[in-house]
Amino acid sequence: GHPHPVWRMTSRVPALPRAVVVHVDLDAFYCQVEVGRDPSLQGQPIAVVQYNPFGDLRTILPSEPRIFNDSNGSLIAVSYEARAFGVKRNMRGDEARRQCPELQLVQVPTANGKADLTIYREAGAQVIDILARGGVCERASIDEAYLDVTEEALRRARRDHGRPVLPLNPEQCRVYGPDGVAGCEAWFSTPDWAWSDADELLAHGAAVVAELRHVVQTELGYSCSAGIAHNKLLAKLCSGLHKPQQQTILPESAVQRLLDPLMIAKLRSLGGKLGQQVAQVLGIETVGQLRAVPETRLRTLFGPETGPWLHRMARGQSSDRVQQRTLPKSLGCGKTFRAQNAIRTLQDVQYWLQQIARELAERIGSDRERNQRVPQTMGVGLSSHGDHVSRSCAMPGLSVESIASAGLALVRRWVAERAEWTVTDLYLSACNFRSIAACPSIATFFQSAAGEGGQGTQGLAPPDPRPDSP
DNA sequence: TACTCGGTCACT
DNA sequence: AAGTGACCG
Fold first, then answer.
1. Does residue A121 lie within 7 Å of nucleic acid chain C, judged by its CB?
2. Which of A48, A53, A111, A45 has its CA nearest to residue A82?
3. What values do phi and psi take at A229, rounded to 5?
4. What residue spans carry the region label Disordered (predicted)?
């Protein structure tokens, strides 16, 4: 503890401030978007369903009534009121209704014979625009973002001479402390001399996050949860600790307490086959048990990259930086055609490529208007007999027709190579965006800025030889 | 009849 | 650099 910890030099090497990294997660986001569009749903148990029936799909506009309580589609979002009844994501409509007879099922809008997620995408972009006010902002998905608020936290620490102040809405703020989870009042009333540099920065960062969450709530009406820690791995874990509408700070002193009892699969990127394999090969279940495995053994069993990476994960260490990127890197849309519906003729491939290309062209068009960029590459993806195939080509143009016919050409090439095929998934995507900013000198500026874009204070952290990856 | 429709990243 | 596959929700 020190009144001016940020400036203190403890030795010949200055004490580098740790980054304040935040993971923000909208609460049951699609449900919140639907409640915003139909306030009579407020407070009710609801779920959003994506119904993919046989054959074509009638267009259902966002503005139309979309409550179909007899739907048996898959639930892709479940409100907290409904979760209290045991309704879960990926349940079917009928099972969900058995759990909660009062459940209101809102159908995703449809267009071009397929589900259309535009209203959720646009709502997500509005949230990102607000979060980006707080610091370096990385869009992680339609309803999640990482922030690096180190800069603003440092600014406040200097301004306030240390002394973090209790954030807005303290009842929505938690601290995962060395003595267990607590409300944040006690932690924030730590005497000035007792703050560690790292905790003090987290506390200031948490105030920033509380304010951002408040702005999202008042300007857009959406609640979200957040985790505040020193890296993305821990922030992500933390954001899920207290939901909905709460944020959780993870001081460094509590990292081990959080990780040790945690199932390995709870760590990001270990929720699949690799996590299963790690647990099985080592005969363990928890992160604490993984931490006890010597690095040399992990290296032997999982290789020179994955082994050390697991060793660091078990200690809550991650050097994965928050990127400055509020826009998606690719736009894609597609449709699944289950058993009976599988596509078996090129005619049907052509028909569905046209439908899908309508949506993609529309999205590319609005993206160009809003973000002054156009994709340079497009691709088609499909599944046949459980195999996934993708082919790509230079963007042939931005019209529905050019996208659809280029997609068909790619599929024709693939079809020509085989005797029999059955398409059960069909996707079109666009990526490799280039700026079309009006002024060439501005475009040049952005191109040169992109290489070092928005790393902010992250350069203060010690450099790492490699980015995180399994 | 029913595991959708997006996305990101690493490996080769 | 195109294509594959893992992973997330």
1. no
2. A45
3. -155, -165
4. 450-470
Taking each helix axis from N to C end, the angle separating A400-416 and A346-371, rounded to the nearest 10 degrees, works out to 140
pLDDT of residue A450: 46
In sequence order, what are the beta bridge partners of A331? A430
Structure tokens at A198: 């790292």
Question: Across the beta sheet with A104-107, what order do the strands follow?
Answer: A74-78, A46-50, A104-107
CA–C1' span, A193 to C7, in Å?
A: 44
Q: List, run by run, the mean pLDDT of 10-residue segments along chain A (470 residues).
A: 30 66 98 97 96 79 95 95 96 95 96 95 97 97 97 94 85 87 86 92 96 97 98 97 96 96 96 96 97 97 96 96 96 92 95 97 97 97 95 97 97 94 96 86 55 41 36
Q: Is the CB of A330 under 7 A from strand C?
A: no
Clarify whether residues A360 and A438 are in a common domain. Answer: yes
DSSP H helices in A241-394 = 255-259, 273-282, 287-291, 295-313, 346-371
Domain that holds residue A140: 14-26+122-257
Report the protein residue whose CA lies nearest the C1' of nucleotide C3.
A390
Residues A219, A220, A223, A224, CA torsion sign: negative
Whether residues A216 and A351 share a domain: the answer is: no
Q: What is the DSSP letter of A8?
A: -
Q: A434 and A340, same structural domain?
A: yes
A144 annotated active-site = yes
Both A342 and A225 in a single domain?
Answer: no
Supply the Cα-derived Rg of chain A in whole angstroms: 25
Picking from A257, A273, A299, the residue at the C-terminal end of a domain is A257
Whether A162 contacts A190, CB under 8 Å: no
Angle at A118 between CA A115 and CA A124, to 5 degrees: 130
Round to whole Å and give the CA distance between A235 and A127. 18
Which of A115, A140, A171 corresponds to the end of one domain?
A115
pLDDT (0 to 100) of residue A456: 44
The predicted structure's pLDDT at residue A177: 82
- Chain C bases having any atom below 7 Å from a protein CB: 2-9
Output the domain CATH number for residue A293: 1.10.150.20
Q: Is the CB of A291 under 7 A from strand C?
A: no
